[in-house]
Amino acid sequence: MQETSTSDDHRDAERAHRLRDFQRIRAFSEQLCEPLVIEDYGLQTVVEASPPKWHLAHVSWFYETFLLRPLLPGYRVFHPRFEYLFNSYYEQTGSGFWPRHERGLLSRPTVSEVYDYRQHVDAAMARLIAECPSTDWLTAEPRLRIGLNHEQQHQELLITDIKRHFAHNPLRPAYRADLPQSPLRDPDPLRWLSCDGGLAEIGAPSRAGSEGFAYDNEHPRHRVFLEPFALADRPVTNGEFLEFMTDGGYEQTALWLSDGWATVRQHGWRSPLYWEQQDGAWHLMTLSGMRPLNPAEPVCHVSYYEADAFATWAGKRLPTESEWERVAVDQPLSGNFVDAGWLHPRPAAPAEGDGPRQLFGDVWEWTGSAYLPYPGYRAAPGALGEYNGKFMCNQMVLRGGSCATSADHVRATYRNFFYPQERWQFKGFRLAESRS
Asked: Which of 167, 182, 300, 191 is nearest to 241 (CA)?
């Protein structure tokens, strides 16, 4: 009897912990929307950036689709057409989905109705977590953890999408005028960290990261052989990228990949996204409005093509994701995350010792690795298998998290991925070089 009681206590404690996580993460999504006015919720100025209203509803759809409908007896959906409106890309659910580029064309449901939808889902999820039979909990608990991490991904998208929409407005409105700013200064000298070659293991172990969570694309853990290399101790800065621009970096076709050069000419790129010249000086759009360019901050909102062209100009290259992880795996998971409240990259702290700086937080770092499955990878069966696996083509891997990422969401094995031309996320890069 004592053994059963202990088991029950452990189960209850685990469920109470998951409920607290659920409530905390759900509340943070709504907290991020508090600075918005009602007109902001439906904005979609570019295809890749969705309206805030859509994000709030979509993450609720995820819990409803993968947890409540299959696992909570008697659950009644909030609205039968939300299954179609707020599905993002899952084909196997059978519902279809509203086109991504038309998410901003929907005035209905109203913002109020979307918040009612969230409350409906929250109440049902609390019942599921409390009442789910132990046999079903074996299915529910892993799906809940995916759902929580999924919502954290959309919290980052909420921030970056709002910035993209506000930057489209010639008034350059501030999302939050009270955000702190780093003092203007020149960047610290860049140092190089030498790394031995040989066999290394990358990828998440069977239980990895915060409380053992890792996405399927971080598995399986496997061995890679690395040649000796060196990694820059910090990301490339605004000041360094400005040198590239001043030297005609956007005009020298020899620096660019063919697709990158075609993209530069098609879009007329002459600087990173959000950079503007005012009275002969560079400024950039931030979530607190326009600011003077800080030379010491990591350059961000650059595409893979721009990162690669800069590396070629500098006589270096981008690190592979295996090289990046080899260095990062022994480093503490600390940095400028969304929790710190800056919502903007900060200059690197002065170097202390021989270790790397800013591997986590500030900016996602482009690597030179294509987003492909690890050896032995198998997508999960069913619609949840579409979460990562079907995007393993034509995209590049980024590592490390950004100033819009939650601190408990990232880990050394985390693989983010975007198309090489995309710039609206907080994306930067650091350099690498091969050593003999």
From this structure: 300
> pLDDT tens digits for 98-141?
999 999 999 999 999 999 999 999 999 999 999 999 999 999 99
Q: Please report how many Cα atoms fall inside a 13 Å half-sphere around the Cα of residue 207, on the Cβ side.
A: 3
Coil, helix or strand at residue 55: helix
Nearest to 312 by CA among 273, 368, 361, 387: 368
pTM summary value: 0.96
Question: Do the bridges between strand 432-434 and strand 275-278 make them parallel or antiparallel, or are there none, so unpaired?
Answer: unpaired
Quote the CA–CA distance of 342 and 422 in Å, as a whole number.
23
Residue 42 token pair: 């439906």
Model confidence over 160-181: pLDDT tens digits? 999 999 999 999 999 999 999 9
**Cα 376 → chain centroid:** 25
Rounded distance between C-alpha atoms, residue 18 and residue 212, angstroms? 14
What is d(CA 238, CA 58) in angstroms, rounded to the nearest whole number? 35
Tokens 């889902």 correspond to what residue? 121
Angle at 85 between CA 80 and CA 91, to 5 degrees: 95
Burial (CB count <10 Å: 0-12, 13-18, 19+), residue 348: buried
CA distances from 74 to 71, 77, 87, 167 (A): 9, 10, 22, 45
Residue 275: half-sphere exposure toward Cβ, Cα within 13 Å: 21
CA distance 343 to 341: 6
Q: The tokens of 320 are what?
A: 């592979």
How would you class 229 by CB atoms within 10 Å of its CB: exposed for 0-12, middle for 13-18, buried for 19 or more? buried
